[in-house]
Structures are given as structure tokens and as C-alpha cells.
Amino acid sequence: MALSTATKAASDALGANRAPTSVSPQEVHRWLQSFNWDFAQNRTKYPTKYHMANDTKEQFKLIAKEYARMESVKDERQFGTLLDGLTRLEAGNRVHPRWGETMKVASNFLEVGEYNAIAASAMLWDSASAAEQKNGYLAQVLDEIRHTHQCGFVNYYFSKHYHDPAGHNDARRTRAIGPLWKGMKRVFADGFISGDAVECSVNLQLVGEACFTNPLIVAVTEWASANGDEITPTVFLSIETDELRHMANGYQTVVSIANDPAAQKYLNTDLNNAFWTQQKYFTPVLGMLFEYGSKFKVEPWVKTWNRWVYEDWGGIWIGRLAKYGVNSPPSLRDAKKDAYWAHHDLFLLAYALWPTGFFRLSLPDDEDMEWFEANYPGWDAHYGKILREWKALGCEDPKSGFLPIQWLIQNGHQVYVDRVSQVPFCPTLAKCSGSLRVHEFNGQKHSFSDDWGERMWLSEPERYECQSVFEQYSGRELSDVVVEGHGVRADGKTLIGQPHVAGSNLWTVEDLKRANCVFADPLAGF
Amino acid sequence: MTAKNAYNAGIMKKSGEAFAAEFFAEENQVVHESNTVVLVLMKSDEIDAIVEELIMGEEAKRNPTLVVEDRGGFWWIKADGKIQIDTEKASDLLGKTYSIYDFLVNVSSTIGRAYTLGNTFTITSELMGLDRKLTDA
Questions:
Q1: What does the H/E/C string look like for chain B?
Q2: Which residues form the domain of B86?
Q3: Which residues form a coiled coil (chain A) (predicted)?
């Protein structure tokens, strides 16, 4: 009987490429590569201005069987530990309350990043033309699905086992009113999946993963352990076991375009924009979560940043690529200033706007203040002075009717939101980099806090149109906005956000209404 | 004396004004090329044995710049040039089959170019694929 064309082709290929005689996974990987499709003329829905070479290698030589076995072992260890040992030890309630609140933000926000990374790595799978590179991206798609589940599970676990579940259980319902959400979507969503495919890879893999996952997912576990949290290290260190392959994917993306003339033209700008985009949010938010969201300090955030961002990512990734034309990001100088001061600036504003959050914040106590001044000389006279005044005015007491956001406005400290990063800033109090600048475009006014975001907006203004909470709710009373934005607990009256982490004396909608705080658009005055 | 690759080496030993002075010094406003690599291993029975016997043993002898630090949930390892782990030796040490993919279960982070070849895991400061080709055998 005559063989079909397909069967003959398969038989010929098998004849030319003998099956491995052992079952070594790496030998199987090598063998499988000889059956690749020819992707040299790859057509993609997600084009890039770069030409990606089609001979790029995958550094970890994954095959489906070993990948699945490896990941199932990780899951077995994670869930086994969480559901057996840690539950028996009542680990959820041994966490310091400040840190329990930090994890409401860290895990919920990372979940969004992981979810968007599914789409980002799938997009890169479609864009790449090297078979091995596609294999690496495909495994990343599967990893990101796993990570999304893992982050969801951290909050689910805390919801069941931590004494204050509000915010762990359903943070996303507050996404319209919380000022931190929009900036998070800018770095974790827009930066990963919008625009040129390679530019997205630079954002996601070369900067987001190779640089900021180290403080966000590795260093965070040191802070967690110091503050009694044994859950986060179990899960986050397991998440990070996949990130090294993602960093390799990002690096191989750079390898695939290294010889393309477009790289000479665009790569440094894309890298600088990606670095600034990611650092503008992660630098202040992580610093705030670590230092203000903990009782037991591991080290100053600026040192964590110096180690993982400046010395290691900067020196070992970017510095080593210098001979291939990759430059030190020009925005680094401003980023370093932010690493020192921006998280203190952000805490002032986050605390001032605490009713819009899905987590509880607390003021530094005397011991914390001493630590801040020792590590950030000048902190006390600038930030400590304000925080002490707020405390004296009763900011923690629901009967006081005192809201720090009203104090800021009454004292001439207007709060703006940077249009590009969506990070709030107060030009009259900020010690981080930048200054206020305002542009008008298509009848809308836009505020910016730094040169780098302003430049990005000037080249693509239509890309950054997200409204701030002040524009969105201009003229509306705060308690009405919080109720409408689902910032209330299951009893229908107590707020999810609180200005302290004590278990009693909680603010309610009525307490908030008494303050009569009305949102105003700061850009209306321009 | 603190080893140059230690977690708190160099500027990290300083605090307050002294740290700020070096952090904001003009020469530190650009990145500086580094020939080091960093490996983060999540703690587990297997990894603890590998760190103690293989990494702090023969790998540290081969590469005296190697530093291992206990950071709570993970081992933080830094060295000049490269760090290599042979999982066949790990298999002998652990008394069970232990492949490169078993090792990857607990490799939490790498800074440098990490790759696998046969039974060996390598993290190197070399630019693999640019300075030198990645090979299959």
C-alpha cells in the first residue's frame, strides 16, 4: 500500500533523525529541535520594529514532560506546606498586622501583573521566529497562569487564616477609587501588553522580571520572615523559580535583535522608557510597603534597591551589554533620588487618602521614627513633623473628623496625579525627583511630575488618557465615593481602609461623612 | 573584613549620611559593568545539602570569590565569573535520582546568564549567545 505524503515525510524525518537511545530530557530536547517548523517567514499579529533572528536558543532546554513534572513538584511542596504544617501552626495569625496589610497590596497587585504577563508572553510567542525562543515563551505562558493562581491563593489563604480578611478577600472591587490601582495597571498591564512586541519584552522581561521581581518577589520574603509571615516565602520563592527562565527569555529577545540595525536606533530609548516606567511605580510602592508596612525592618529600602536594581541588574545585565551598544539608562540619576525619597513622599499621600484603600495603614511609632531618621537623615524634620501633627490632630480617631487629605489642601499642599505613571505626587512636599508641569491637549489638562514621563506623553499623548480619582470624582463627597466604590466591609458600615491596625475603634461611613471632604480637580485651577 | 561579594559589602556597610554620600556620588549616577553573578536558592532538604556540600565545598574551592549567605527563606550566593552545579554529583550526595530539572525546582533567581547543559547548571557573567554560542552538547 502506498504511503501518504505526510506519513512518508514523517518516516523520512525519523530516518534522518534517529530517536534518542536514552531518555535524557536534554537529548530529547535536542532531537525535537530537528523537527521544528520553519519560522523564518513568521507572520504575526503583533509586529515589532525590530527583526528577531530565527536561530535564538532557549537556555533551559525544556520539554513538556520535564516542565510539567518540575512545576507539579513545586505546587505539591507549596500547597502541602500551606495546607498542612503552616495551618497547624496557625501561621496566618502570627503575622504582624502591619505586614498582613502589606500582603493585601503585594499579592493582589502581583496577581494582576501575572495575569497580564500571560498575554504578554503569548504575544511574544507569536512574534518570535526562532523555534527554541518560542518554546521558552510558551513555557512562560504556562508559568504566568500558575503564578496568577498562586497570588490568588495567598490572598485566599490570608482571608481564611488572618484576623482581618477585608481586602484580602476582594480587593479588586475597590479598583475605581484606590489611587494605587491605576499606576499598578500602567506598569503591570499597559507596559507589558501595549505597543511594539519587543518593547513589551523589554518592559516585562528585561526590566520588570530581571530587575524588579528580585525586590518584589525575593527580597520581600526577608521582610515577610522578619514580620512573622511564613506563607509569603513559601509561595513567592516558588513563583520566582520560574522567573529566571523569564529573565533568560528577555535576554534572548535582546540576543535575537542584537545584530538588527533597528536595535542601534531604538533599543536604548526603549530600555530607558521601560526602566523609568517600571521604577516610577515600583520604587516608591515597594519602599513604602516594606518600610511603613512592617514592624521589624530588614534594611533601608534604598539599600535593597542599591543591591538588586543598581549594582546587580545595572552592573550584571546592563553594564555587561555595554559593548553591544546598550547604555546606562539616562533616567538612572532621577531613579536613585526616588529610591531614597519617593516612598516617603508616597506614604504621606497614601496615608492622607487612606479611606480609598483596601488595606489598613499605620503611622510610624517612636521607634520607627528613630530608625527612619538614622537611615534617611532629614526624614524627621520633613516627614516626621507632619506625621506627628496628624497624630496630634486625631487622624487615627474616628470621632475626630480629621482627614489628612484636607490638612494637605488647607495648608497649600495640592495633590496631583502624574498622567503617564498615574502615581500621585505633591510638588510642594515631595523630596523625590521631578517637579510639576501641566499641558493641555484636546481640551484636557494633564499634570506630569518628571521629564521622562513627560517625554513619553509628548510623543504619544493618545496613549495616556486615564483619569485620576480627582478628575473622576470632582465635586463628589468622599464617603459617597467610598460607598459607591465598594470600600465598605461586609457589615455595610465599617470602612475597609483604616488609619491604624488596631482591631477596634474602626472608622465607619458616618465618621467619614462628618469630615465633609469633597474631591476637587487640582487641574481646574490652571 | 567583609568579603567583596558579601550581602553587605562596600557601600552596603555604610549608613546614614555616609551611605547617601556614596549613593549620590557623581561617579555612581551611571551603571558600572560587573563580572559577578548572583544565585538565589530556595531552602529545601536537597538544596541545603547541595549548598553545604557542593557549593560551599568544591565550588568555593574552585572559585574563592564565592560567598553564601543565609537570608531566611533562601540562600543568597554571589561570585565572580561563574557558578556551576553538577546534578550528577548532587544525585550521589542525596542518594537518589536528582536531575537538572529537580534542581530547577528550587532555583529562585539568577542574575547573569543561566543555562543548563546535560547534568550541569551554570550561571555565568559571559553573554551567552553573544560572546559565545549556546550549545546543545
A1: CCCCCCCCCHHHHCCHHHHHHHHCCHHHCCCCCCCEEEEEEECCHHHHHHHHHHHHHHHHHHCCCCEEEECCCEEEEEEECEEEEEHHHHHHHHCCCCCHHHHHCCEEEEECEEEEECCEEEEECCCECCCECCCCC
A2: 33-124
A3: none
Tell me if residue A200 is catalytic: no
How many other CB atoms are found less than 10 A from the CB of residue A261? 10
Q: Cell digits for A383?
A: 516627614
Question: In one letter, which amino acid is A319?
Answer: G
Helix (H) or strand (E) holding A72: helix A64-80
pLDDT tens per residue, range B44-99: 999 999 999 999 999 999 999 999 999 999 999 999 999 999 999 999 999 999 99
Alpha helices in A258-376 (DSSP H): 261-292, 301-305, 332-352, 366-375
A315–B contact, CB cutoff 8 A: yes
| Residues B73 and B110 grouped into a single domain | yes
Place of cell 555565568: B124
**Local structure of A441: helix, strand or coil:** strand
- Asked whether the beta carbons of residue A315 and residue B107 sit closer than 8 angstroms, the reply is no
Same domain membership, residue B79 and residue B67: yes
Q: Do A225 and B107 touch (CB under 8 A)?
A: no
Burial code of B58-81, b = ≥16 C-beta within 10 A, e = fewer?
Answer: ebbeeeeebbbeebbbbbbbbbbb
Q: How far apart are CA A287 and CA A418, in angstroms?
A: 19
Residues B18 and B78 in one domain: no
Mean pLDDT by runs of 10 across the 526 residues of chain A is 74 74 80 76 86 88 89 92 87 95 97 96 93 93 97 95 95 93 94 93 95 96 96 96 94 92 94 98 98 98 98 96 94 98 98 98 98 98 98 98 97 97 98 97 95 97 93 97 97 98 96 97 93
Residue B127's contacts (CB-CB under 8 Å, 6 or more residues apart) are A320, A321, A324, B113
Any domain includes B135 = no
Q: Are residues B57 and B17 both part of a single domain?
A: no
From B33, B111, B137, residue closest to A313, measured CB to CB: B111
Residues of A in contact with B14 (CB under 8 A): none
Same structural domain, B6 and B26: yes
Contact call for residues A240 and B40 (beta carbons, < 8 A):
yes
If asked whether residues B70 and B120 sit together in one domain, one would say yes
Distance CA A359, CA A179 (A): 13
Q: How far is CA A409 from CA A178, A394, A477, B12, in A?
A: 19, 17, 15, 39
Nearest to B107 among A30, A244, A332 (CB): A244
Query: What's residue A242's pLDDT?
Result: 95
Q: Which residue range is the domain that position A148 belongs to?
A: 64-519
Count: domains in chain A: 1
Q: Do A243 and B109 count as a contact with CB atoms less than 8 A apart?
A: yes
Note whether B42 and B6 are same-domain residues: no
Angle (CA) B44 A108 A194, round 5°: 105
Three-state DSSP at A174 gives helix
Decide if A417 contacts A468 (C-beta within 8 A). yes
**A279: buried, middle or exposed (CB in 10 Å: 19+, 13-18, 0-12)?**
buried
Q: Is the pLDDT of residue B1 over 60?
A: no
Query: Does B133 fall in a domain?
Result: no
> Is A33 part of any domain?
no
> Residue type for A439, please?
H
Backbone angles phi, psi at A53, to 5 degrees: -65, 155
Quick one: B118 and B61 in the same domain? yes
If you compute the radius of gyration of chain B from its CA atoms, what whole number of angstroms results? 17
Strand, helix or coil at A406? helix
